[in-house]
Amino acid sequence: MTESLQIQLKKGVLEMCVLALLSKGDNYAYDIASRMADAVGMGEGTIYPLMRRMQNDGLVTTYLQESGSGPPRKYYKITKEGAQTLKNQITDWLAFEAAVHKILGELT
Amino acid sequence: MTESLQIQLKKGVLEMCVLALLSKGDNYAYDIASRMADAVGMGEGTIYPLMRRMQNDGLVTTYLQESGSGPPRKYYKITKEGAQTLKNQITDWLAFEAAVHKILGELT
DNA sequence: CACGATACCTTGTGATGCAAGATACTATTT
DNA sequence: AAATAGTATCTTGCATCACAAGGTATCGTG
């Protein structure tokens, strides 16, 4: 394990979900936030700082595009590095899931 | 949803694991910490505050017992309320897992 | 008696999830 | 034309928390 799975969990799971979404097509934060809010209860106040962090880490790039229905959207596009990170995070996530299930044991 | 699944994740997953361990038998923090360190990379500095929190929340009770090999151990015993909390947390956890898998989709 | 292992606990730091609010553009209603 | 509602961006402040590092005390062994 490169670093504590716990760290992976905390820093990684939301990032992983966002990267997974972006791997299926470019998207903008507001829409990502809506989807994530439905799926795992994450709001805008969490998404925007997260997107900036991911951009700083080189996992995504951005470009502006007019929308016709509101202010221009800032689209995020996953990078090669982001795709690799996603791959690693999925591996770590599956390992973490397995570890938790082992602890839960026959309680499930 | 009672509260954001995200909060459940953060505050709940480690607690859930500890409660699951305790549901199989009383244990003391040092040993719990060792097991959790192996399983999900959590150390003592995380466990001790967590145990106190859980005690304050009425999820566990404690009793002291001599060990013969070091200082006396403070054993933790899960309460009825703790068992119920564990049940709820497992339900939430499985729902969260399902949500993440849905997002990951065919990427897994 | 010194040392390592066991076992407890505290402090300080850095991240971060989130609610709430600020800003601004467009379309629809009044 | 003014007001409202929806879209979309981002910031601030708060509370929480995992973790590393350090501190204390007990026991057995060399």
Describe the protein's architecture and organization:
Two copies of one chain form a homodimer. The first copy, chain A, has helices at residues 5-22, 29-40, 44-56, 80-104; strands spanning 27-28, 60-65, 73-78. With 108 residues, chain A is of the alpha+beta class. Chain A has a single domain (5-107), classed as Winged helix-like DNA-binding domain superfamily/Winged helix DNA-binding domain (Arc Repressor Mutant, subunit A). The first copy, chain A, has a three-stranded antiparallel sheet. In chain A, strand 2 and strand 3 form a beta hairpin. Chain A binds chain B through residues 1, 4-7, 9-10, 13-14, 16-17, 20-21, 23-24, 39-42, 46, 86, 90, 93-94, 96-97, 99-100, 102-105, 107-108, and chain B through 1, 4-7, 9-10, 13-14, 16-17, 20-21, 23-24, 39-42, 46, 86, 90, 93-94, 96-97, 99-100, 102-105, 107-108. The structure holds a DNA duplex (30 and 30 nucleotides).
Biggest sheet overview of chain A: 3 strands, antiparallel
Sum up the overall morphology of chain A in one term.
Answer: elongated
How large is the count of helical segments of chain A? 4
CATH class of chain A: Mainly Alpha
Secondary-structure arrangement, i.e. CATH architecture of chain A: Orthogonal Bundle
Q: Care to count the β-strands of chain A? A: 3
Biggest protein-protein contact in the assembly: A-B, 34 and 34 residues
Annotated CATH homologous superfamily of chain A: Winged helix-like DNA-binding domain superfamily/Winged helix DNA-binding domain
Which structural category do the helix and sheet elements of chain A fall into? alpha+beta
* Head-to-tail CA distance between termini of chain A: 26 Å
Query: Strand share of the residues of chain A?
Result: 5-15%
Number of domains of chain A: 1
| Mean pLDDT score of chain A | 87
| SSE pattern of chain A | HEHHEEH
Low-confidence stretches of chain A are none
Q: Helicity range of the residues of chain A?
A: 55-70%
Examine the coordinates and then state which fold CATH places here, giving the name of the CATH topology of chain A: Arc Repressor Mutant, subunit A
Strand order of the largest sheet of chain A: 1-3-2
**Rg of chain A (C-alpha, Å):** 16 Å
Oligomer: homodimer
